[in-house]
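Example for tutorial group B:
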C-alpha cells in the first residue's frame, strides 16, 4: 500500500471523548506528523488534498477483540485481509485473539504477527494465551510474551476453566501490569448449547446456552480479581445479570472491565427463528433476549461497559452453510460495527458522540495500557474520518474480509467510516 506522508484534510470537525466541535477546520500532515490544525490552510505542491466536507475526525478507533485467523486458518482470514476489513470499518488498531494454529502461546508467534502487520495501515496487537496451547493446564511464559509484544492474555474461544490456574494467571499478570481477558463460560452449564436457552430455543427444539453459564464465570473471576488484585476483563458480555455483576464489582473498586459487541446491543434470539435458522446469527455468547439488549445499552450509558468491540470471527462459506447445530459460532463485525453503533446508540440518544468515541478510541487502549492517539499538533497522525448522517445499504461488495459470514448484508446502515490515516498511510473507503 502506497504511503501518503504529506496530506491535507480540508473541512473536518474534530471530536474526542471530551468535546465535539461544530466548526470545520483543516489538518495538515507532514511526514506522518500533524503539522497544523487551522481553517483555510493552503496546499503545498507535495501534499495530497482531500476535502472531507464537514466529516468528523477523531483519534484512530481500536477494536480490542478480533480473530485474524493467521497463522493456521488463512482460508478464513489473514492478517492483511483482516486489516483491510478494519480500515474499511474505520479502525486503525486491532488486538487479535490467540486461537490460531499454532496458538499465540510462544514469543515467536507474537513476533511473527507483529512483523506481518508492520507495513499495514492498521496496528495489530497480539493477545497471547494464558495457558500453553490453550489447553488450560499450565501457564505460558507471560513475561517473555510481554517482551515480545503481547498486550494481554486470554484463551479466548474457550474459558480459563480451572479456577486455580485463573488465580495464578491473575497474580502473574498483575506483576506485569496486564489484563487477563476471559471468555466467560461455564462449560458444564453451557454445552451443547447452540443458541440462548429460553422460549425461542424451546420452540425451535435447539439445545440452549443459559445466561447463568456466563454469569457464574463472571462472578468467579470478579472474586479472583478481588483476591489477587489482578485485572480481569470480561470478554463480549451479553446478559443483564452479567452487567449487574460488573457494575457491583466496579462500585467495590475491584479491577474489572468489560466490552460488548454491536450484535449484542442490536439483535435478539428472535433473529434465528425469523431468519429460518440462518447460521450467520449463530455466535457465542449467543444472541439473547430483548431485555438483555436493553441492559447492554444501559451498561454502555452508565459506564459499566467500557468498550465496544466486534469479536470479528470469520468462517468460510463451507463451514457456515451447514445445518444450524453443526455451524461454528461467530460472525464478521469490523465492517459494520460503527454503523450499527450509530443506529442503536447515537440515533436513539443512548450515547453522545463523545461517549461513543471514548468507547472506540480511549477505553480499549487504556485497558491494554496503550497510548491514546490525539489529534493535536506534533502528534503522530492516527486518525479515523467518519460521518454520522450517511444512510447506505451494506452489501456483499462492502465485505473486505476473506469470509462473508455476517447477518447485516442487505441492512440499511446509519453513519459511515470514510477513511483512516495511520503509519503514514491514508486509506479511503471504497
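The residue assignment follows.
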Amino acid at each position: 500500500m502506497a504511503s501518503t506522508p504529506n496530506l491535507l484534510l480540508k473541512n473536518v470537525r474534530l471530536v474526542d471523548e471530551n468535546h465535539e466541535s461544530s466548526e470545520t477546520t483543516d489538518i495538515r500532515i507532514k511526514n506522518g506528523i500533524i503539522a497544523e490544525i487551522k481553517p483555510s490552510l493552503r496546499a503545498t505542491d507535495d501534499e495530497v488534498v482531500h476535502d472531507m466536507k464537514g466529516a468528523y475526525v477523531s483519534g484512530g478507533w481500536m477494536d480490542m477483540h478480533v480473530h485474524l485467523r493467521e497463522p493456521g486458518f488463512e482460508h478464513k482470514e489473514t492478517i492483511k485481509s483482516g486489516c483491510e476489513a478494519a480500515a474499511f470499518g474505520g479502525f486503525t488498531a486491532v488486538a487479535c485473539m490467540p486461537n490460531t494454529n499454532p496458538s499465540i502461546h510462544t514469543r515467536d508467534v507474537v513476533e511473527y504477527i507483529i512483523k506481518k502487520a508492520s507495513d499495514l495501515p492498521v496496528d495489530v496487537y497480539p493477545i497471547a494465551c494464558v495457558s500453553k496451547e490453550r489447553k488450560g493446564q499450565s501457564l505460558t511464559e507471560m513475561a517473555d510474551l510481554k517482551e515480545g509484544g503481547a498486550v494481554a492474555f486470554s484463551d479466548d474461544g474457550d474459558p480459563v476453566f480451572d479456577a486455580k490456574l485463573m488465580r495464578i494467571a491473575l497474580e502473574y499478570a498483575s506483576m506485569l501490569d496486564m489484563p487477563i481477558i476471559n471468555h466467560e463460560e461455564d462449560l458444564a452449564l453451557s454445552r451443547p448449547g447452540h443458541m440462548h436457552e429460553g422460549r425461542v430455543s424451546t420452540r425451535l427444539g435447539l439445545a440452549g446456552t443459559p445466561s447463568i453459564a456466563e454469569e457464574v464465570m463472571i462472578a468467579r473471576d470478579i472474586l479472583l480479581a478481588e483476591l489477587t488484585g489482578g485485572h480481569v476483563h470480561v470478554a463480549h458480555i451479553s446478559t443483564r445479570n452479567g452487567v449487574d455483576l460488573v457494575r457491583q464489582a466496579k462500585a467495590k473498586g475491584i479491577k474489572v472491565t468489560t466490552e460488548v459487541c454491536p450484535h449484542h446491543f442490536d439483535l435478539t434470539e428472535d433473529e434465528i427463528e425469523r431468519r429460518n435458522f440462518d447460521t450467520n446469527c449463530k455466535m457465542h455468547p449467543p444472541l439473547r433476549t430483548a431485555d438483555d439488549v436493553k441492559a447492554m445499552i444501559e451498561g454502555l450509558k452508565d459506564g459499566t461497559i467500557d468498550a465496544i468491540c466486534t469479536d470479528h470471527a470469520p468462517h468460510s462459506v463451507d463451514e457456515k452453510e451447514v445445518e444450524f447445530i453443526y455451524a461454528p459460532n461467530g460472525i464478521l463485525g469490523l465492517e459494520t460495527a460503527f454503523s450499527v453503533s450509530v443506529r442503536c446508540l447515537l440515533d436513539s440518544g443512548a450515547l453522545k458522540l463523545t461517549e461513543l468515541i471514548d468507547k472506540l478510541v480511549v477505553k480499549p487502549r487504556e485497558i491494554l495500557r496503550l497510548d491514546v492517539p490525539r489529534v493535536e499538533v506534533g502528534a503522530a497522525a492516527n486518525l479515523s474520518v467518519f460521518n454520522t448522517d450517511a444512510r447506505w445499504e451494506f452489501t456483499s461488495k462492502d465485505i473486505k474480509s476473506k469470509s462473508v459470514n455476517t447477518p447485516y448484508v442487505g441492512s440499511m446502515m446509519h453513519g459511515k467510516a470514510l477513511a483512516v490515516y495511520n503509519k503514514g498511510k491514508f486509506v479511503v473507503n471504497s
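The chain has one domain: 60-367. Compare this with the pattern of hydrophobic and polar residues in the output above.
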